[in-house]
Specification:
Length: 231
């Protein structure tokens, strides 16, 4: 097998990403403008906002409308559920400050592994469930040099989300690599591992805590293990 490209998921694959990460950012920005809400309330408001977004079909526009427009609308729903007085500006302020408050922590081995892959002449890509400009921002902030990546594919680039086959095909097309010559590395079985497999790519599931019990999944505990899987 000759692997010519390695593609990565971003959250919990290249970068650490806590499950209440978004809610904590929201809380910090509210604090900045003098509004105090508990994390518990914010989590509940997010849950309700996601339900509303589904009912209002906003979720189906994720990746299909401009990211500012999407996040203004979503933030407004969270604000409504937090019972903060109607304030369109606040939704915009939260979005405009978002990346100032975002912590981007790559896993310690990520940089070395990316540069080793690059040195070996492999193409490198990212496929993530975020807007492309957000992915670029996160990679830059995490110090994962943007020039390392030959392609970055977000929900707006492909107009769909993992595990939809088109998002993987979109990245492969951009890299001009056949699926069987590409390896995808991600932490989610359905979205990443099975999604990549469904288009004929090879796949590795990153399982840092070794909690995965499903048989016949090819797993790695650390990004370094990619290197021995592509020879
Ligand atoms: Mg992930």
């Amino acid at each position: 097998m000759t692997i010519k490209a390695v593609l990565f998921d971003l959250g919990n694959t290249l970068n650490r990403f806590d499950s209440d990460f978004d809610e904590k950012i929201f809380q910090r920005i509210l604090n900045l403008v003098g509004i105090a809400r508990s994390l518990k309330n914010i989590k509940k408001a997010f849950k309700n906002a996601i339900e509303d977004a589904e009912d209002l079909e906003l979720l189906s526009y994720y990746g299909k409308i401009d990211s500012n427009e999407y996040w203004h609308q979503f933030n407004s729903l969270v604000i409504k559920h937090l019972k903060i007085a109607e304030n369109e500006d606040l939704a915009k302020v939260i979005h405009s400050k978002w990346f100032d408050f975002m912590e981007c922590t790559p896993y310690p081995e990520a940089k070395d592994v990316l540069s080793e892959l690059k040195q070996r002449g492999l193409k490198i890509g990212v496929i993530s469930t975020a807007y492309e400009e957000e992915i670029r921002f996160v990679l830059e902030k995490a110090g994962l040099e943007k020039t390392t990546f030959d392609t970055i594919v977000g929900v707006d680039t492909a107009q769909c989300m993992k595990p939809h086959p088109d998002i993987f095909k979109c990245a492969l097309r951009k890299l001009n690599v056949r699926p069987e010559d590409a390896m995808f590395v991600g932490d989610e079985i359905e979205a990443d591992y099975k999604g990549a497999k469904s288009v004929g790519m090879q796949a590795l599931l990153i399982d840092r805590t070794e909690k995965q019990k499903e048989d016949d999944l090819k797993t790695i505990k650390n990004l370094k293990e990619i290197l021995s899987n592509i020879d």
